[in-house]
Each structure stands twice: as structure tokens, then as C-alpha cells.
Amino acid sequence: MRLVLLGPPGAGKGTQARMLRDLAGIPQISSGDLLRAAVHERSRLGVEAAKYMDRGELVPDDLVLNLIDERLGASDAKKGFILDGFPRSVAQAEALTAMLLKRSGKGIDLVIALSVPDEEIVRRVSGRRTCTQCGAMYNLVSEPPQRVGVCDKCGGELYQREDDSEATVRNRLNVYNATTRPLLEYYGARKLLAQIDGMGRPGEVDSRIIAALDGLLSKSERAKASRGRDN
Ligand code: ADP
Ligand code: ZN
Q1: CB 4 within 8 A of CB 87
Q2: Which residue's CA is the closest to the ligand 1 atom numbered 23?
Q3: Distance from C-alpha of 211 to C-alpha of 79, rounded to nearest angstrom
Q4: How far apart are CA 205 and CA 155, in angstroms?
Q5: Ligand 1 atom at minimum distance from 35 CA
Q6: What is the model's pLDDT at position 229?
Q7: pLDDT at position 23, please?
Q8: What predicted TM-score, i.e. pTM, was given to this entire model?
């Protein structure tokens, strides 16, 4: 299964990508995570990328395409993958098609686009907190930790991503609307698009996505998905 998750910042792409990863046993490939790892390592690419990320602007294609192409070449991506945060423009979508054709002769199976209203995005993203130790995510509004600033799972310290401040979130939304939103039409025209309402509890969004995946899941994966819903 080769999936793309599309949607504005804070739409829940990361949460849903991890749900699908656990369900189908294929890797979640997040361009944002790959870029943040490069920034953290202070590689030449990371230092360059950070300038754009801090402002909420898109990192230039040559940098992003290199990272993604390398990641898609890893052995765990052979049986499928969930792309989260990539592609983000029509140019990136075309580059992705070319990369996949070269590697396997097969394109994307489905693009899942999560829709969430702008004001809800600003509210969600500015409340987002991540654990410095284990990466668990919280939301001060919808999923607060039990103790302020402390991870429930491991006791690690929680932090706010630098680009999650309200001003930067608004800029990321503008970039999304101008540059990424046209992908809805692009993939719609190619009959690859499933538009999903991203509002509601995470479990409700899960069910909508699983319904949209329908024929792409094996019988055992469908059974696993419905067991997950009953719990
Ligand atoms: P979100 O989806 O919440 O905006 P991401 O972690 O996907 O967060 O992205 C964070 C930042 O990383 C973006 O604002 C952008 O600067 C950069 N980035 C991530 N993916 C891409 C991409 N495909 N192309 C260009 N820049 C990207
Ligand atoms: Zn933790």
C-alpha cells in the first residue's frame, strides 16, 4: 500500500499516519520529521532547511526531494509506505511520481486528504506539545498531560515546536492554501483522492479513513481495524 496523507498543519496527519503504520505494518515517512532530524544533526542540509522552517516556509525542493528519495530507497519501504507532509506542491507530486516509477514502476494507490477549518488549526497547533524523551504528543486543549509540562508515558519534559507559535502557524496555513491545496485538484483529476473530514475524536477520523481504504486493506487488516474500533 502506497499512501499519501495530505492536509493543513495540525490536521492530524501524524496521528493518522501512525495509526495506519501500526495497522498495515508499513513505515510512516514524514518529511517534517526527516527535516527536523537533519536540523538536529546540524548537517549542511539541516542548517539550510532550518532557515525556512523557522519562518513556516517550504524548504526548497532539491533538499526535500533528496531526503525523500533516499528514505524511499530503504528496504522497509519496499512493501509500501505512508507519506506524511510530502508532497506539498504540484512540483513535488510530479517529482514523487517520477521517483516511484523509477524505483518500482508503480505509483501512489491513494491520497487521503484531511480537512479541518483554519481557526481549529490555529487552536490545535498552538496547544501542541511533544515529549523531549519519547516523542509522545499532547494537546493542552484536547489531550492535556496529567501534570503540566510532563509526559504521562515516560516523565520526560514537554516542549513546543519552535514553528508552532501562532504567527508561524498562520504563515504555514497561508503556504498550505497557496501551494499545497492545489494538490486536491491534481489528485482528484487522477481519481486518487479521498477527502476525509478531520473534525471529531481521533477514533472517528480513524473509521472514516479505514472506510476510504476499503479494497486496499487485506482481510486480516480489516479485522484488526474493526477490533481496534471496538476497544
Ligand atoms: P505540519 O504539517 O504540521 O506543518 P511538518 O512537520 O510536516 O508540519 O512540517 C514542518 C516544516 O517542515 C514545514 O513548515 C516546512 O518548513 C518543512 N517541510 C516539511 N515537509 C516539507 C515539504 N514536503 N516541502 C518543503 N518543506 C517541508
Ligand atoms: Zn515521553
Answers
A1: yes
A2: 86
A3: 21
A4: 29
A5: 12
A6: 61
A7: 92
A8: 0.87
Catalytic residue at 128? yes
* Side chain identity at residue 59, one-letter code: V
Dist. CA 126–CA 179, nearest whole Å: 22
Q: How many helices (H) and strands (E) does the chain have?
A: 10, 8
From the candidates 13, 124, 129, 208, which is the catalytic residue? 13
Q: Is 86 in the pocket of ligand 1 (CB under 6 A)?
A: yes
Among 4-18, 163-177, 184-198, which range has the highest average pLDDT?
184-198
First-to-final CA distance of the chain: 25
Q: Which range has the worst mean pLDDT, 3-12, 14-23, 46-55, 215-224? A: 215-224
Contact 75, 159 (CB under 8 A): no
- DSSP string for 60-109: PHHHHHHHHHHHHTSGGGTT-EEEES---SHHHHHHHHHHHHHHHS---S
pLDDT per residue as tens digits for the range 169-196: 888 899 999 999 999 999 999 999 999 9
So what's the pLDDT on residue 217? Answer: 86
Q: Whose CA is nearest to atom 6 of ligand 1?
A: 32
**CA angle at residue 161 from 125 to 6, to 5 degrees?**
50
CATH H-level superfamily of 2-27+74-222: P-loop containing nucleotide triphosphate hydrolases (3.40.50.300)
For the chain, the structural domain boundaries read: 2-27+74-222
